[in-house]
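Hi there, hope your week has been kind to you so far. No rush at all, and the record is pasted right below.
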Amino acid sequence: MLPRPIQNLIDEFAKLPSVGPRQAARFVFYLLNQPKEEIEKFAKKLFVLKKIKYCAFCNQAIEINHLCNICKDKSRNRNTICIVEKDTDIESLEKTKRYNGLYYVIGTEDENKQLARLKNLIEKIKKSSKQLEEIIIATDATTEGETIALYIAKAFKNLPAVGRVTRLGRGLSTGSELEYMDEDTLINALLSRK
């Protein structure tokens, strides 16, 4: 039987996405064998996460300021918004260098928070004087991602401020996440969106 503090930490690591109890135990025992200074440095980096803010427009995690670098960039196409599930999806799409519009992160929390964020986006679009040419739905090819995509498509379908609603082309295999897609697959999905 493991000492309670070690088991408690294993239980916390096991709550992370894609981390099972065995991998969580490896993390804990790795940390247990590190010098005190390294553990303190690690703990400080964890506490810094509480200082992270979110972009006022796209909900992407940012360190400071009101807007993220993408939303501040005046050279970006402000008539197109790509809706993604998580911040890492933005990184993947940006690597393709084929999309120059804005993003909106709905998050991977519970449905109520996702719906609240989507309603927030709809309100921002309604209040804006600009006509959007396109909203691109770039959710994961998972059951949850498909459900979110259907809801988004329905919510924006009859919104007069939106020209068209498209989805990434399906070079993406079912059950896959954007974060793990190679650049060529993402480029093809962007170019063949419907």
Summary: The chain has two domains: 4-51, 58-191.
